[in-house]
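Give me structure tokens for this 274-residue protein.
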Amino acid sequence: MKVRTSTRVGSTFLAYGSTAIFLIPVYILVNLSIRPDGDLTPGFLPSGKATLDHYVTAWTSSSLPGAIVTSIIVTVISTAVVLALATMAAYPLARSMSRLSNATFYGFLVGLLLPFQLALLPVYFQMRDLHLLGTIWSLVIVYVGLQMPFSIFLITTFLRSSVPIEYEEASRIDGCSNVRTFWHMVVPLLRPVLGTCAILNGVGIWNDFFTPLIFLTGGSQVTIPMAIYQFVGQYTSNWPLIFASLVISMIPILAVYLLLQRYVIQGFAGGLKG
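Here you go.
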């Protein structure tokens, strides 16, 4: 009993200690964002003259509000399309044991190894020919293609390791078609891994700067990273406004994560079993 108690206390102490270490950058970020101009207090010390003026300025004197709307639209549409397509692609890959199925699965995994920059120029010219440059639809198409390999990998391995095929066989015995079995039996069981994919894909899309910089140039719409970059100059940067904008940009994605957090670890762990 003493060994178990000491182990539990050590694990708890390690967990809280690790959490504190990871929260230090967040604390410094918030602390720097509420400082008045000219305050030279070290970043880890709280300021005696905290102010929210930088948040007001970042919200009213920049394109940040519109950028948040654009980022939400791009993230939601891209993530939803990725989840729908990846789920429909992963199901036959998980249930079929043929050589073609395995070859197709490993073909998708090649997409995890190849950097996006290899296809950047052809994709850019294709979007230009389709007159999609400067629109959010170019981003949606690119993000769907980029996020599909990882999502298919995670959902396929989760299906193989955590969703018994006996459930589907029982539903077919009861008279359900393959389509009805998939939507009413399989998809509800995929909620943990779908929540994991939604968080991982959403965070990656939300924070991405390079892709919007390439495909939204020349358009009127910008995403959050592009809006924050407007505070960066060649010779000087408005760091208090950058810090305040970063804190504002964290709020929506953090709220979504808190809503789906119970699915994240469960789905990720189940997906890695395969």
